Amino acid sequence: MGIPSKAPFHRQPGFPILILQAIVTAVIAVIFAVSGGWVAAYSALLGGLIALLANAYFAFKAFRYFGARSAKAIVQSIWSGAMGKWIITAVLFALTFVGVEPLEPMKLFIGYLLALLAAACAPLLMKVF
Question: Which residues are in the Cytochrome b/b6 C-terminal region profile domain (predicted)?
């Protein structure tokens, strides 16, 4: 078994990326609220939250262990985090499509993709700032 990390979740390396993702999600929801109405706003917000919750689960799993002796546990944890992330994403999309009416699917996917793009670009942006 690996050596567990003792750092709290908000001190983990992936946490600033989650914060940036949350900020982008909120900004997109406000932009859609102003330009497209409340349905567009909460559709985009739900899309961003789907990406954010899935990435939060992955970050929690990926940074559970540290050190060279924990290499096997780290790889297993990252693998299970990635699989869990995809399962959470699929389940949350299914629940959203079944349980939320009215919904604008295009705005939902725009919110999701922009939140993913924010997470992908976050390491580059954090080097600049």
Answer: 1-129
